[in-house]
């Protein structure tokens, strides 16, 4: 069986990788949306940049919520509780 310290380390490492991925995602979002905004400014008067910024922004928001553990819909430890519940209720 896995040591408690090893388990905590593994979970912490996964969380740090998720946060790091979010920061990378946010940086790419800022760069790409900035380039698209410039293209929108120099090419047309229609403000089409709003559509990709909002669409991608919603995805970025979801990624941030996951990375920082804010899940108002299912709760912080919902998945672990559900696994334990299913394991306790199912007969094998």
UniProtKB/TrEMBL annotation:
<dbReference type="InterPro" id="IPR025698">
    <property type="entry name" value="2TM_dom"/>
</dbReference>
<protein>
    <submittedName>
        <fullName>2TM domain-containing protein</fullName>
    </submittedName>
</protein>
<dbReference type="Pfam" id="PF13239">
    <property type="entry name" value="2TM"/>
</dbReference>
<keyword id="KW-0812">Transmembrane</keyword>
<keyword id="KW-1133">Transmembrane helix</keyword>
<feature type="transmembrane region" description="Helical">
    <location>
        <begin position="21"/>
        <end position="39"/>
    </location>
</feature>
<feature type="domain" description="2TM">
    <location>
        <begin position="10"/>
        <end position="88"/>
    </location>
</feature>
<keyword id="KW-0472">Membrane</keyword>
<feature type="transmembrane region" description="Helical">
    <location>
        <begin position="45"/>
        <end position="74"/>
    </location>
</feature>
């Amino acid at each position: 069986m896995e040591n408690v310290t090893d388990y905590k380390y593994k979970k912490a490492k996964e969380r740090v990788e998720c946060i790091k991925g979010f920061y990378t995602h946010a940086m790419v979002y800022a760069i790409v949306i900035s380039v698209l905004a410039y293209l929108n400014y120099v090419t047309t008067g229609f403000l089409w940049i709003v559509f990709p910024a909002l669409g991608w922004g919603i995805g970025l928001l979801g990624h941030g919520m996951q990375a920082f553990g804010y899940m108002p819909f299912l709760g912080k430890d919902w998945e672990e509780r559900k696994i334990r519940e299913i394991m306790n209720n199912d007969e094998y």
